[in-house]
Amino acid sequence: MRDYLQILIYIVLGIILLWSVYAIFMGQWMKIRRQVKSVSQKGQPKKRPAVPGDPKICPLCTSKLAGGELVQTQAYSSLGGSRERLMHIQGCLYCIRGDYPRFCPVCHTSLSTTDKLVARMFDRSNRRSHVHILGCFVCRKKTM
Q1: Is 67 part of a structural domain of the chain?
Q2: Is residue 30 part of a domain?
Q3: What is the pTM of this model?
Q4: Closest CA to 103 of 65, 142, 133
């Protein structure tokens, strides 16, 4: 009877040990699997769905920006005290790095990582500034 009790204890301890090892490794495996799922097949971060023109959206790659992420821009001073200023938009961190394809929102031309958009920025006293994208340098030359 004592031998059966010892065998039962060893079996229970073995099952607990196997379950513990399984839980630890499966937990690590699931974490790795989630990280792999967040990266697309091309090795790019998974793009969050966005509607072009909405706030907190990159106008070049239409990627939805998370809190604290900004689009890199250069705003130039206005002439004659006007509230309208010229602006160059470089893009967000993802499209500048080359993670996402970049397109002009006006002419839909594919852009390289060094290309910029031309825009007008209207400064408002009571509200946030308004930005109107005129296009890339390619489509701006066609209209001039």
Answers
A1: no
A2: yes
A3: 0.59
A4: 133
The pLDDT tens digits of the residues spanning 4-59 come to 888 999 999 999 988 887 877 777 666 666 655 555 445 555 566 666 667 788 88
Has residue 53 been placed in a domain?
Answer: no
Closest C-alpha to 103, from 55, 135, 143: 135
Contact (Cβ atoms closer than 8 angstroms) between residue 86 and residue 122: no
Q: How many structural domains is the chain composed of?
A: 2
**Enclosing domain of residue 8:** 1-37
Report pLDDT for 58: 86
CB 23 within 8 A of CB 15: no
Does 57 reside within a domain? no
Indicate the helix (H) or strand (E) that contains 37: helix 2-37
CA 76/CA 84 separation, integer angstroms: 10
The helix/strand/coil state of 45 is strand
